Structures
1.
Amino acid sequence: MPLTDTAIRALKPAEKSTKYFDGGGLYLEVAPGGGKWWRLKYRFQGKEKRISFGVYPTIGLKEARERREEAKRLIAQGVDPSAQRQAIKASFTSAEADSFEVVTREWFDKHVVNLAPSYAKKVRSLFDRQIFPAVGAKPIAEVEPTDILNAARRVEQTGAIETAHRLIQICGQVFRYAIATGRTKYDVSTGLHAALPKVNVKHMAALTDKKRIGQLLRAIDTYGGFFPMRCALRLAPLLFVRPGELQKAEWAEFDLTAKEWRLPASKMKMRQRHIVPLSRQTLSILAELQPYTGNGRFLFPSIRTEAKPISIESMLVAIRSMGFTKDEMTMHGFRGMASTLLNEMGYNRDWIERQLAHGERDHVRAAYNYAEHLPERRRMMQNWADYLDSLKAAKD
């Protein structure tokens, strides 16, 4: 006899699973624990098979019968209901695996080693807030240019135009990764930069007037503040590394015999090792500093604790106290000063760029060329130190 809702509700579990048939292969299986499962027994291509329709009462008698009839129609068309269900499930799984968010996080995990930790954190936060809520669940092959542009415009409306451009740039890297891994065919971020306002590039103030540079160098030499601070300021124009690299310089990184400062990749903006040749003038300053801080970790420890280095802000305050305004000079300005004058002096641009540790687009090549042009750079760095001495001495 066909089942009824009243009869089903009255069914009690037995010691073993019990089947109650409704007809057409549909039956309700009552487990010893009380669970009631709808199942369909059918034959396909000569083989007996079974498929589950869900649990009663979530799936009621009427819906179970509808599913039975749909399965019978598929069988009549030569389609195995069980195989079709597996194919549908696989398609959903594939779509999830190829979603924009999954592909982006996969790309990120592979490329985070090339990013500074602070920058990597910003990128993650940017995507978590601006991209994933809107299109993260979409298969990456179905993401439209407008999806990315709308997210970038939301960032632009906050005034962060440079960040909006960066979002599009990183999306482009994700799409190119998806193309390489067979998830999509197109980089839909191409050309989107043109739809945003241009970024107004702010150049760090840097002295390039030779007379004014000489005045700054003499002012640093007579600075009467914290001695490690004075040494840091004296080394800044000689080494012209990034302010954070100078600030966090450690004695363990210096090979005074080889006359080299060897910065590990973890400290560099481009995540590549870097060598700074040390001039005679630099070695002389380090010899003066070593009795003060040589037994600690940092060359320039904070005045309050040796566990932390001095702050970049305190170096800026010292420069301001010498009479040099923010429109004239910044700590980053020592790099601009060196770049401008070394180019004017006719040095090979490749030597200068390598000494500035500017980014190499080819990360594989960059991993091996940290010592590129090193003999030439040694001569350039010594000549640069001699040139700074001449500027300092030329009081006229």
Note: Confidence is low (pLDDT under 50) at residues 360-368.
2.
Amino acid sequence: MLKFLMLNLVMMSFVKSWSTIQMSMLAASFLVLMNLNHDFYFFNLGGGLGVDGLSYVLVALSVWVVMLMIYASQGVKKLKNFYPEFLFMNLLLMLVLLLTFCSVSYLMFYISFESALIPMLVLILGWGYQPERIQAGIYMLFYTLFASLPLLVSLLSLYGAQSSLSMLLPLKGGSGLLATKGLWYFCTVFAFMVKLPMYLFHLWLPKAHVEAPVAGSMILAGVLLKLGGYGLIRVLSVFPNENKMFSWFWLSVGVLGGLIVSVMCLRQVDMKSLIAYSSVAHMGLVLGGLATSSLWGWTGAVVIMIGHGLCSSGLFCLANVVYERLGSRSLLIGKGLLNFMPSLGVWWFLLAVGNIAAPPTLNLLGEISLIMSLVSWDKAMMVSVGLLSFFSAVYTLYMYSLSQHGTYLNSLYSCCSGKLSEYFVLLMHSAPLNVIFLKGSMFLSG
């Protein structure tokens, strides 16, 4: 089925009809979801490709988010802003993501992992909003390339030591002095920490989000940030002793960095900037869960990655709807949206509740697992995790109340409340976020 999907992507890249690609992507996304319940481990696809339960869930998320990207980017078609090239870049990005999640070799995974940067850079530079998009693209390029070269050297060294880079074989970290093994470990995981992104190396993310078009923001928050978590899951098993030795460092940076970023969210007046910083806070919690190397931590990290991919992508879509109406993303200008866009108020509420990780959203399931793993690792983490959860609710309610309530500007009164395509995109974000919670046993079963 995945072979058929990849072949379908190649064929769709030559089609220039927007509606044809929309319907094809919708059919493909539902086709992928139909097989989501299958329990398999590294099902062989041939050509160095394979898929297990973890990679298939992220493949389904990739197809789903790219489908919603195309539906949310109607403005590109309306303005005739090189939309055949725009569709081609979206499909190319999805093909690269599928190759990344289905790679069985670490080297092929690295090549696909880095190749995802090129379509994303073209989307930001070609269809971004402001002249600062060039600076944002350069930030993203240099941050990720700076961290990726040590990973390549580490993988080549691993191949020299083990004569294999297959994920199907148990690989062991380097032998020799402790300092050398620690250096090897940091060179391997650093590229994924930057892509996650880890606090202190996250400055490229808000810039990329603010300058990217709505499709770029949706795929960046929905899938590309998950590449870092997926890569960590794949490589941390190679260095079990080193990960146990430095877990305190990743836990500290992840949880305390997320707490600092949560406070920074309260100072943001740009909607997209606030949502982007909130992604850094959520991914800090994911980093902490992965560093514990426990079943609760890894399961919660995967569930949070899926839930955050849907929730954050939907919030960026809502921010774009407001930007198309008002011509500004400022929370100071876009006040009182309930007065002249009342039908979108329920979607703001549902996605804000998902960002807080309130029931019955999928994020709640993930946060319970992560909190259990962090508190089990050290009871002193209760204070930091409690503050992180508290500030997560504070900045989300700050965004919701400031945007929905208050006195609106008189010049904004004559606005279209919402379009059918926008309601469809928001429904396709919030429905899985609340429905998959009912099938949480699928994620929590070993």
Note: The longest helix spans residues 295-326.
3.
Amino acid sequence: MAQGTKPMLVGAGRRDEAHVSGRPWRARGDGLLAAVAVAFTLAQLLLVRPSMGLGWDEVVYVSQVAGDAPAAFFSAPRARGVPLLVWPIASWSSSTTLLRVYLAVLSGLALYLSLRAWRHLFPARVLAGAGAFFVTLWMTLFYGPQAMPNLWVAFGALLCVGCFLRARADRLDEWALRGVLAGAVLMAWMRPTDAVWVTLPLLVLAAVARHRRLGAALAAGLVAGGVQWVIEAYVSYGGLRERLNEASRIQGDLGWNLAVDDQLRSLVGIILCRPCDVATPHPAVFAWWFVLPLLAAYALAVAVRAGRTTRTLVPLACATTAAFPYLFLIGYAAPRFLLPAYALLAIPVADALWNLVTAPNGRWRPAVATVVGLALAGHLAVQYVVLDRTVERTSASRLAWARSAAELHTLGVRPPCLLTGHEAVPVAYYAGCGSAAMRGHNVNTTRAELLRTARRLPVGALTAPGRKPPRHARDWELHRLDGLDVRIAPAPVAGDSA
């Protein structure tokens, strides 16, 4: 091979045209990835309503930097990455629509950059197919414009793993090394524990192969992204071990818990399956879930045969470790938990599909292509139906919170004010009030403190219809809201600050 000539990448016995034909093909490949990213952004804006109100977890994250409501209680498992992500908008605007549009555009850009990190590893058509598969999953579209961390962990995972493989193949690729660092920082900012699980195979590989710079970049990224979380553990939770123990308690005491069936049930559009006692959905909803490992195994077999095992095996390994705690160590399920695993699986799966529908000489296999095309069309239709129903149901519940907040204002519960009880966190944010809890995962007050606050501010205790109120609120004035009961403390005495 002549000096200065790049080696050709081989995929299932075929050469990658992006590396054979020069700049025009590379530009066309980048344009293909950009088209997928733009389509992702537009699909979010069209299918996931930008006007959809903030969810419970979103309220917690956004309220940390918003100026129109007190910050909600920030529990031990959470990290400050999402508040940092939404700060450019939420710090000065209360518009949910503006925030959604901002996040949709930003997630489209993140998709493009994270896929482009793999351009020297797989053909553009494979990467575009991987992107298209990942972003047409209902949970990817649903969380694209939302202030939640899991999709951003997925983007960080794609960036980190792709750049790791590039830096491993070319030790002079400084940009790839920076990509490893950036991807690790992004993951650790969003969810430090997830970042560790995703990068575990990379850390092992770097140590075994003695790639000191790669190992150092990974470690530095994890430390830089997670240092704030660790410092906060000592400042607010009594130490790192105490914060991890508290996080485990909030998540149902992490340990051996088979949650595979819970995750399967949640695929019908249940955004939080806790407890996950719903019926198993129709097989059409979860069939793709069982096809994924088969395609991953086929992709690995193709890679071994083509002599490019590492670049397929590594993302599969990272996807496995990313999914492991949410399948086997936690007692409940949420589809968003597995987004990093789906993102990493998407590339080998897309590679497998391309190798199924094309022969070694690059010609189409019409029969196989037809079957695969019909299967993908059916899969896409199911994903759209689940997404549409999930958006409809979620929008309705969040609109109910907004109506409850408006009714509270008419009852005299206006900022500054405080709400406690059932769904107090989201309703309080919509009303501009603070929220407090005396029990559960968000304990941040006591009965005595609450009663003292009621002498100075409007205080309401929320309960589900028909449920008994807390003892201290039984004599408070009862009002019926939209799906909630509220008991409002007697009006504060003017000038009473005791």
Note: The first strand starts at residue 10 and ends at 11.
4.
Amino acid sequence: MPAEHTGSPTAAKRRAEHPVEGKVAVVTGAGSGIGRAVAQAFLNDGYRVALAGRTTRTLEETAGGHPQALVVAADVTKPDDVGRLFGAAVQRWGRIDVVFNNAGIFGPAAAVDEISVGHWNNVVAVNLTGTMLCAAAAVRQMKTQSPQGGRIINNGSISAHSPRPLSVAYTTTKHAVTGLTKSIDLDGRDFGISCGQIDIGNAATGLMSEIGVGSGALQADGSRRAEPTFPVEEAAKAVLLMAQMPPSASVGTLVLTAAGMPFIGRG
């Protein structure tokens, strides 16, 4: 452990006095939805951004030819792919300042006695293990770079607070991401590494269409109800706000929902 903890006020002041020009961000699941909106928000704000996802074509669509975008096709469930992703970003720009762990899937609608082991493992692999692998790669880099430190933002969900019906795998992984977020933030203190979580409800993305939010999402009482949504660009603004916090401050949890959606009073 360094003689002067980089999580200390003195170290935070030193980093603030020597800001990194053109900060570097890594965004997973950047080919669509929230990931695409966040990656574009970072690029528009002057970040250099590594865009990760499984499909090169959609990542290139997100990048839109931006000179500070680096497209890296990678599967977050595969350690070698994750290593290659972070290695490519560091090789090009020398450091990692922000990671937005966004890659995730909802999985099949199923109760605990209905979901197959295969489907369960797939959701856990993407939503939880993938987030852990990317966070681990980020922390390793953030510990060794100079100036030391950085920020990790995990995309949770309001399902980390309250589940939808028939979402056992998704809900379980999002609750687990909350524990992962808190553990990373605690263990990163001495190295100037902070970790926060954004829990989003009903941003207008393809995932919301899949579960019928706009036309009739299943409610806890068995009924179906059209739920309000909000523009995904607003979610991107919130992530950017978290990323822009100075080293001396951190947003632990930010909950952002569509106005009037059934969350606090679900079912």
Note: The chain has a mean pLDDT of 90.
